[in-house]
Amino acid sequence: MPKVRESILVAASAERIYPIISDFEQYPVIMESIKSVNVLEKGEGYSVTEWITDVDGIKIKWTEKDIFLPEEGKIEFKILKGDLKKFDGYWAIEKHGDSSELTFYVDFELGIPMLARLLNPILVKKLRQNICAMLEDLKKKVEE
């Protein structure tokens, strides 16, 4: 199963970054590839969210459970249903002097074994580009 991990250095504290990365409903405003995020359920330390993204003209839709761990600077997510068989990962913030490293990690599976060998390298490349763009967009939002 492909895994993608990308990080960016942000000139801000974890306390400044965490509220922005945990406000999923603002993602479509901040990030071009995120078309919509709807919170379906919210509880103590978690949410269930429905996502629609556009990766090079391909719409991908899924529902995930998000676990908020602000004291660790982390948000974990796990797909519940959707267009991908697996899409599990996390956001993490790690202090680096006066800045913070913001990381997005995902372990995903398309769910079509016969096409995986052909499509996974393409999906990894596209997903990596998309994640890097998301991180840049979040960095701009945090540092403005």
Structure description:
By secondary structure, this protein is of the alpha+beta class. The chain has a single domain, classed as START domain (Alpha-D-Glucose-1,6-Bisphosphate, Chain A, domain 4), CATH 3.30.530.20. It contains 3 helices and 7 strands, in the order E-H-H-E-E-E-E-E-E-H. The chain has helices at about 15-20, 25-30, 115-144; strands spanning about 5-10, 35-45, 45-55, 60-70, 75-80, 85-95, 100-110. The chain has a 7-stranded antiparallel sheet. Strand 2 (about 35-45) and strand 3 (about 45-55) form a beta hairpin. It is globular. The model has no long low-confidence stretch (mean pLDDT about 90).
For the structure shown, list the relevant keywords.
7-stranded antiparallel β-sheet; single chain; alpha+beta; 144 residues; 7 strands; 30% helix; 3 helices; Alpha-D-Glucose-1,6-Bisphosphate, Chain A, domain 4
